[in-house]
Amino acid sequence: MKADVLVLGAGIVGVSIALHLQARGRKVALIDRKPPGRETSYGNAGLIERSSVIPYPFPRDLRLLLPYALNRRTEVRYHLRQLPRVARWLAHYWRDSSPRRVAAIAAQMLPLIERSVLEHDALADASGAHRYFRRTGWIECMRDEKSFQRAIAEAENLAPYGLRHRVLDAEALHKEEPSLGRVLAGAIHWQDPVTVSDPGAVTQAYANLYRDRGGEFLFGDAATLSQDGSAWVVRTDGGAVHAPEAVVALGPWSCGLLRPLGYRIPLAVKRGYHRHFSLSDGAVLEHPIVDVEHGYVLAPMAQGVRLTTGVEFAHRDASPTPVQLERATAMARQLLPLGPPVESDPWMGSRPCLPDMRPVIGPAARHAGLWMAFGHCHHGFTLGPVTGRLMADLMTGTDPGFDANPFSPARFD
Fold first, then answer.
1. In which element (H, E) is residue 21 found?
2. Neighbours of 39 (CB within 10 A)
3. Which strand (E) or helix (H) includes residue 245?
4. Is the pLDDT of residue 64 over 90?
5. How big is the chain by its Cα radius of gyration, in Å?
């Protein structure tokens, strides 16, 4: 079998790349070992995060570092044996989290963030996925007055970005979300983001659009990628597929494929968990909410209220550990009357993260026809469609209208 491009990975990023290349007239083979949207594109808070114009830096508040070091915080947890493996990565992350570097990275990421909702809307219009979309924003909640006042100041500092937000004191928050417990000092309601009730179904709808337009999805193992003359080859259930170009969009599995080819991209994974709960006592949740002090999200989903945890530094394939989810669930029960969990076991996945808080999107430096698109940190679902457009622009020699060099894989050579 022959194609113009092999897209390896059928998460939101890979599916979006396949759709945009298909729209440019390329014959694409989309390849994954699982059906589209079954990994991190499924297990997230369902936010298209237009308001996240500032990346998530390494905390530099010394008051937090000791609790982090003692593994006592809910939002961040680590496996002790993993620390030596990520020590160099964490040092790089710390360095790039200086205020000066964060400001520069925010400016580089802004063209992607600004286009995030527009590019999702374009694919949702074509695929019928708008039935999953809600345009009511999300709410950032603070438990104490000091945190609330700090959040107000931070929101005001974002005024140059033109983001719409409402400041909700305790009474206004109770009117907006009557089922929330009276333990919150206030909140910021961010109005520009779009949220979805089933991110996995959105990714699947985009994949269905790709197939409806004649695209081919094949089950295969990306680890079989090899070169045969000027062609890239991958073995699939339907046989070997050859193409002059290949895109690696495998999220947390990308570097395992690229390392034998000589690429040392400093990718780490931040594991996360989610579980769905029913609500008791007639409670209702209308918006996704973030408990800022404890770093988890409660989001109304088709399956129930989804609780998603913060960050766990652990080996990607290590067995799940329930501590962080248990801590977050206990905190969440103070906010909402959570009923029994919907599923017997929680979901666990890995967020692919680079220490400079930018994805790699662009050509491999030493292999003609090889491209990379991964490492979106916490914004893979947000940035999948805009990444697809940018990758199609780069691969077809089209000017994207902004500087794409900050995302080049060559920055790590």
1. helix 12-23
2. 23
3. strand 245-248
4. no
5. 21
Which residue matches tokens 């292999």? 367
Q: Cβ of 324: how many Cβ atoms within 10 Å?
A: 26
Cα distances (angstroms) measured from residue 321 to each of 84, 251, 317? 19, 22, 12
Tell which residue, 356, 386, 387, has the closest CA to residue 372.
Answer: 387
Q: Which residues contact 379 (CB under 8 A, 6 or more apart)?
A: 49, 52, 113
Report the distance separating Cα 11 and Cα 200, nearest Å. 9
Span 201-214, mean pLDDT?
98
The whole-number pLDDT of residue 63 equals: 80
Specify the DSSP element, H or E, that contains 17. helix 12-23
Backbone angles phi, psi at 271, to 5 degrees: -75, 155
Strands 370-374 and 245-248: parallel
AA letter at 106:
A
1-57+96-134+193-267+354-413 CATH choice from 3.30.559.10, 3.50.50.60, 3.40.720.10, 3.15.10.40: 3.50.50.60
Give residue 102's pLDDT.
96
With contact defined as beta carbons under 8 Å apart, do 410 and 358 qualify? no
Bridge pairing between strands 231-236 and 239-243: antiparallel
Confidence of residue 147 (pLDDT cuts 50, 70, 90): very high
On the 0-12 / 13-18 / 19+ scale of CB atoms within 10 A, 337 is middle
For the record, the structure tokens of 108 come out as 């580089």
